[in-house]
Amino acid sequence: MHELGIVSGVLDSVRPVAQEAGATRLLSVTLKVGEMTGALQDAMNFAWEALSEGDPFLEGAQLRIITVHPHSRCLECESEFDHDQFHWACPQCGSSLTELLAGRELEIDSIEVDIPDEGEAL
């Protein structure tokens, strides 16, 4: 299950950034995940729950996933089109010479943290 490694890497990336900003708690992380990565949303949610359980900094934090659908350009006629994981041929000219423009993303889009106001008790 490579989703466990993905989520672990996300947490390893966001925790130090959040803590350096003075955050006392992580509230949410939003990821952009392309369909072509093969990452399963249910497995990522399961890994998120497993890795955040019992950690006061992470407990209750939400994982939000924005799914990025495949989008390609035909290298023959230059038309751009959306498609699924299995049908890459250009709908305009039928060419299979295409370039994937979107759908392979796996990136942190945003994080939301709790930063106490000055003078607020930690």
UniProtKB/TrEMBL annotation:
<dbReference type="GO" id="GO:0051604">
    <property type="term" value="P:protein maturation"/>
</dbReference>
<dbReference type="Pfam" id="PF01155">
    <property type="entry name" value="HypA"/>
</dbReference>
<comment type="similarity">
    <text>Belongs to the HypA/HybF family.</text>
</comment>
<keyword id="KW-0862">Zinc</keyword>
<feature type="binding site">
    <location>
        <position position="93"/>
    </location>
    <ligand>
        <name>Zn(2+)</name>
    </ligand>
</feature>
<dbReference type="GO" id="GO:0008270">
    <property type="term" value="F:zinc ion binding"/>
</dbReference>
<feature type="binding site">
    <location>
        <position position="90"/>
    </location>
    <ligand>
        <name>Zn(2+)</name>
    </ligand>
</feature>
<comment type="function">
    <text>Involved in the maturation of [NiFe] hydrogenases. Required for nickel insertion into the metal center of the hydrogenase.</text>
</comment>
<dbReference type="InterPro" id="IPR000688">
    <property type="entry name" value="HypA/HybF"/>
</dbReference>
<keyword id="KW-0533">Nickel</keyword>
<feature type="binding site">
    <location>
        <position position="2"/>
    </location>
    <ligand>
        <name>Ni(2+)</name>
    </ligand>
</feature>
<protein>
    <recommendedName>
        <fullName>Hydrogenase maturation factor HypA</fullName>
    </recommendedName>
</protein>
<dbReference type="GO" id="GO:0016151">
    <property type="term" value="F:nickel cation binding"/>
</dbReference>
<feature type="binding site">
    <location>
        <position position="74"/>
    </location>
    <ligand>
        <name>Zn(2+)</name>
    </ligand>
</feature>
<keyword id="KW-0479">Metal-binding</keyword>
<feature type="binding site">
    <location>
        <position position="77"/>
    </location>
    <ligand>
        <name>Zn(2+)</name>
    </ligand>
</feature>
